[in-house]
Design brief:
This protein is 2% helix and 35% strand. The chain has one helix at residues 85-88; strands at 36-39, 54-63, 69-78, 90-95, 104-110, 115-116, 128-130, 135-143, 158-167.
């Protein structure tokens, strides 16, 4: 007996067994934060002020964010009665809790023009820096000069202190 076995394979067909594998790598990103705080929200409420009177209040400026920030302070004041009390009142701002412990950051000048540094982008003369989660105290001290004349009787003003902050990272 004759046994014949025949096989036909298609052109180019083959079977190969191979092992395979794969792996994943991930990346996670989150941004930092800049979160400027100032406390107390109302720095002064002074009524019945006479020439020669003065007062002070410690203001705590904080960075509740994660990145280092730089900040500046500007002031706007209203004189709705037209008597100009904001220009007559004197303000000094020093570093530290009142009575302050250092040279003035803003010295004995008109309340209505008080400023520290500049809100312009980038590092400016006088800007203050705070690391993430850090605070610093500033002493705001006001006075109405003894030389203040009768023209200021019954005068009133309201000042708004605006703290403006920006990141320092990649922001020279």
């Amino acid at each position: 007996m004759v046994l014949t076995l025949g096989a036909t394979l298609g052109a180019g067909a083959s079977t190969l067994a191979i092992f395979t594998d794969s792996a994943n790598a991930t990346a996670s990103f989150s941004t930092g934060t800049i979160d400027l705080t100032a406390s107390p929200a109302t720095v002064f409420t002074a009524t019945g002020v006479f020439p020669g009177d003065s007062g002070s209040q410690t203001v705590t400026v904080g960075n509740a964010g994660t990145g280092t920030l730089r900040y500046a302070l500007s002031t706007s004041a209203t004189n709705a009665d037209g008597l100009g009390l904001a220009a007559q009142l004197q303000l000094t701002i020093t570093a530290g809790t009142c009575p302050g412990s250092g040279g003035p950051l803003y010295g004995a000048a008109a309340l209505g023009s008080a400023a520290i540094g500049s809100a312009a982008q980038g590092a400016q003369a006088g800007d203050r820096t705070l690391a993430g989660a850090a605070t610093e105290d500033l002493c705001f001290a006001w006075s109405l000069p003894s030389s203040t004349g009768n023209a200021f009787q019954g005068a009133a003003t309201t000042a708004t202190f605006t703290f403006a902050a920006e990141q320092t990272a990649n922001n020279p």
